[in-house]
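For the sake of clarity, the format in which proteins appear in this thesis is described at this point. Each number in the token line that follows is a code from a learned vocabulary of backbone shapes. One such record is shown here in full, so that the layout can be seen directly:
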Amino acid sequence: MTDDRDMLVGAVRTLARERIAPRAAEVDRTAEFPWDAVELLRQNDVFALAFPEEYGGTGTGFLTHLRAVEELSWADATVGLVLAVQGLGGLPVLLAGTEEQKHAYVPRWATGEWIAAYALTEPAAGSDAQALGTRARRDGADWVLDGTKRFITNAGVAHTYVVFARAEAGITAFLVEATDPGFSVGRIEPKMGIKGSTTGELLMDGCRIPGHRLIGAEGEGFRIAMRVLDRSRPGIAAQALGIGQAALDYALGYAAERVAFGKPIAEQQGIQFMLADMGTKLEGARGLLYRVANMLDDGVDGPELTKLSAMCKLACSDAAMDVTTDAVQILGGYGYIQEYPVERMMRDAKITQIYEGTNQIQRVVIARELLRDVTR
């Protein structure tokens, strides 16, 4: 990392700890989208970290962006997700869009003027993305989309959605704007964690969009989606890492102050071993995440990126779940009540093992790539 990039991450850390962390419990309690945090990210050019300089971003690369997601997630997993999904929603255009699309949309995402979303999952097509049933047909110069998307992050708050639909030539990617005719938002899901983030249903009933909003070529959508996931899974890994680190930090402080049997519980070997394991899991996962970030900054693509991206998502999210569970255990009864933040962190951590591909799917991907190396 250069000094300038370290300074950017340090500025995000200060913003997260001083302005965002104090609101995290309230965001969780009210389950309201944190527009005040979005405004802070806008005012401090944090959204720009996800985008290249030529389109209005900072151009500081994946590692800086992922470290910022980690810092925001330390304060509030919901806000970390806002930044991660802004990058996710822009990736299809950056990877496969036209120059006209990039200049029209990316600067608005980079300033945070527009919130982005990514719509792949459907009621009957989650892990099996190729089973999606949303349809797209040409009608003159336009495209018309019909179908339903489910579990879409930023549903109802996003200005743009990258929607994957089945056209005559196969799965195809489209840019849909929230104001397009025939597009609406259905049910917003009540959730166990990341409660301030909206997760909902998108309804397309004769949704008409102009032809120039096709991303890439017709039939290239599945390939685009998989390339995006190779680059977006590290964002969820960074979110998980931030959650886990926050839980460890809180557990360390608590263990140093909580007295039992006449001395701080941090002096009990059983607690020490738990803390040691928690720190080791997080540090190992962090090394893998940062390795993948450096690969992305170096322009690495293909099977090796696919394998290591899946590995870092698996390692970071499993570590976050283990660490937050142990943090609750270290706090005992206090860990189980809402007055203390580790129960929220434990609930928030769980989703990181599920979205952007469940950890069972990550293991399938990893094993496939490992076996591919053997059979070549």
Summary: The mean pLDDT is 96. The CA atoms of residues 117 and 161 lie 5 Å apart. Strands lie at 116-119, 135-139, 142-153, 160-167, 170-177, 183-188, 199-210, 214-215, 259-260, 263-264.
